[in-house]
Sequence to fold (226 residues):
Amino acid sequence: MSLLKLIGVLLDYPREELWQHGQELLQASEDPALSPARRKQLRRFVQELLDSDPLDAQDRWLSTFDRGRAMSLLVFEHIHGESRDRGQAMVDLIDAYRRNGFELDARELPDYLPLLLEYLSHRPQAEARDWLQHIGHIAGMLAARAAERGLPHALLLEILVEAGQGKVNLAVLRQRASEEVRDDSPEVMDRLWEEEAVRFGTDAPAQDCDPPHRSPARRVQPETQP
Fold:
């Protein structure tokens, strides 16, 4: 298992199958591309996850990534918000998947970070690095917010920043994160729901911007050749 695939699996919703492949995950955490310190940290993250109860891990994941938008794993949401530009960006990404022989095997938004990482794990190293540099500021901000909230997932996101070999200044992003008002409290979430009016007809958002279903299996699969 490549490092990018491992990070994607660990960032994804922790389905019960994850515990069935614990040894494979632990072995993958020893990737020689990582520094000895990072390997030790990543192995500890994996072991603590495997030692946890699946239902507890799933509940923590939902509390981390499915409440508010600041920790969303939908990459283009951080770039385009809910604008139509985001829809076009996702269409372009799906086209890139298909041009390289991959298809989504579940109805899922293509900018979901674990899905993108699995795709990149099959691409040439230079291409994957370019992508990681392109989204480095997003991964960096997610890492900073995770660290500010005391979440262990900060490690995974910092590794992505480092893998991109970009110029993301995590110290600056951590300072910014420390000054943000959190958007995952019940009060803030209720207010956001009240402010977002339901629209119908021609004013309704396009379906390509529908929120994803976060828990089902998500995989990029190579197309079968006839």
